[in-house]
Write a structure and sequence with these properties.
Elements (H helix, E strand, L loop, with lengths): L11 H21 L3 H9 L3 H21 L5 E13 L12 E17 L1 H68 L5 H36 L23 H11 L1 H22 L4 E14 L9 E13 L7 H68 L4 H35 L8 H5 L5
Antiparallel strand pairs: 1-2, 2-3, 3-4
Length: 454
């Protein structure tokens, strides 16, 4: 009968050597590891979504400067030269008949808008659109912080999961070896050995899955920061997790009203829609411009009425008035359209407020629930450890069977994995709460960064 052999436990000297080597590798890895702040700075320079938002912001700033041109003077320089051929009628004197002459001209003309309500509304719109782009950039920055933190702690969680699985594998291997020894001396049945072997094979499968999950999580983090082989710094110890401050969900919701980027964008969108209505109504109003110009015209070899060279200089200053009278009902229909778009923008603002309030409440209670889970799992970890110790002792004296020890081991390591994940979820959840109410800043990374291994 072919059975898997349990791995032999290393000798004390060899075990010490392996432990020293493992510590050396861990210290070397820690020296190469990156903190959350370091990877955040790398992600800001590499992440495509954030860079796209930043480029959109810069484009909107330039667009605002373009709109200002509608209120500033415009100046144009012109010049030209024309070669003319004149065919005289038979009634003209012979001196004017069938000849060429050249007309040369140059001039500079300027226009300064004095009253253009549509241009003024366009400029005000551009300023609010620039503010919208700034809010969008802030939202992209907040999203980057959360995505990076999630990817960071996903890697740490996968590392912990793999470490716990390997620790469980070592414990199961020891239990398997013990069951085999007891069977050989006749103090246990073959059932104990087979149960331990089945659990060992299961842990091997879990180790393979955990190792692959860690590899995938590392690839995701590498892609986010634009580096290969990133190594996040682990927590220095069990993190001291604090409750959200303030500890009132309504205060978090109220803070989001003025600070959340999506609400600011929607509010600015409503202002832009109102200004669009002003622009539509401005099509009924007159426009007034101040104009000035200086133009020179020189005729070489005369013109159509004379053969003598001439030069004319003309300076002009004036006011130009335009009043629209009828545009085929286009203005009235445009106003109806913009009023409907105002209503849409108003409803979008209300929708944004409701979505932010709901998201903030969900994130707040998620953090509170996570803190409760951490406390419960800490108690469960201590209880599971006590249960494992009791089952091991019971197995030694014969009042517990092998499967009891295996189940207790499995429960302990599962609790350890759940506790580590719950701690990471609370840390990321605290950032998601600030993102949900729009107050997340890059400096909010610092308290979490202080918990990492130096």
């Amino acid at each position: 009968m072919n059975q898997h052999r349990a791995p032999r436990l290393p000798l004390p000297g060899l075990r010490l050597t392996l432990l020293s080597l493992a510590l050396g590798v861990a210290l070397t890895a820690s020296a190469r590891a990156q903190s959350l702040s370091e990877l955040y700075e790398a992600a800001r320079a590499y992440d495509a979504s954030y860079l796209s938002a930043r480029s959109a912001y810069e484009g909107n700033i330039a667009r605002a400067d373009q709109a200002l041109a509608g209120l500033l003077p415009s100046v144009g320089l012109s010049a030209g030269s024309l070669r003319n051929r004149f065919d005289a009628s038979p009634n003209l004197p012979p001196v004017l008949a069938d000849r060429y002459y050249t007309t040369r001209s140059a001039g500079i003309n300027a226009t300064q808008p004095l009253y253009r309500p549509a241009n003024s509304a366009t400029y005000e719109q551009s300023k609010r659109q620039a503010a919208q782009a700034e809010a969008a950039l802030e939202a992209a920055d907040q999203d980057l912080i959360v995505r990076l933190s999630q990817a960071y702690f996903d890697v740490l969680g996968a590392q912990d999961s793999l470490a716990f699985v390997r620790a469980q594998k070592a414990a199961v291997a020891e239990q398997l070896a013990s069951a085999k020894r007891n069977f050989e001396v006749g103090t246990a049945t073959i059932t104990d050995t087979r149960e331990a072997q089945a659990r060992f094979d299961l842990v091997i499968a879990q180790e393979i899955a955990s190792d692959n999950d860690l590899r995938v999580k590392k690839i995701a983090l590498d892609q986010l920061v634009g580096k290969v082989g990133t190594a996040p710094k682990p927590l220095a110890g069990p993190a001291i997790l604090s409750a959200p401050a303030p500890d009132n969900v309504d205060q978090w919701v109220n803070a989001s009203e003025e600070q959340h980027p999506s609400i600011r964008q929607a509010r600015l969108g409503l202002e832009v829609a109102r200004l669009e209505t002003e622009k539509a109504e401005a099509n009924r109003k007159p426009t007034i411009d101040l104009t000035a110009g200086y133009n020179i015209q020189r005729n070489v070899n005369g013109n159509s009425t004379s053969t003598a060279d001439s030069r004319i200089a003309l300076s002009t200053v004036g006011v130009q008035f335009n009043m629209p009278l009828f545009a085929g009902f286009a203005t009235q229909n445009r106003i109806k359209e913009t009023l409907a778009l105002e209503d849409k923008a108003r409803n979008d603002l209300e929708g944004a407020r409701r979505a932010v309030a709901q998201g903030t409440r969900t994130a707040y209670f998620g953090v509170v629930s996570g803190l409760g889970q951490v406390k419960a799992l800490e108690a469960a970890e201590a209880s599971s450890q006590s249960a494992l110790d009791a089952n091991k002792l019971g197995y030694t004296v014969g009042v517990r069977i092998n499967i009891d020890v295996l189940n207790a081991q499995s429960q302990l390591y599962q609790t350890k994995r759940d506790l580590a994940k719950a701690r990471y979820d609370v840390l990321v959840g605290s950032l998601k709460l600030r993102q949900a109410n729009g107050t997340l800043k890059p400096t909010d990374i610092d308290p979490i960064n202080a918990l990492l291994l130096r």
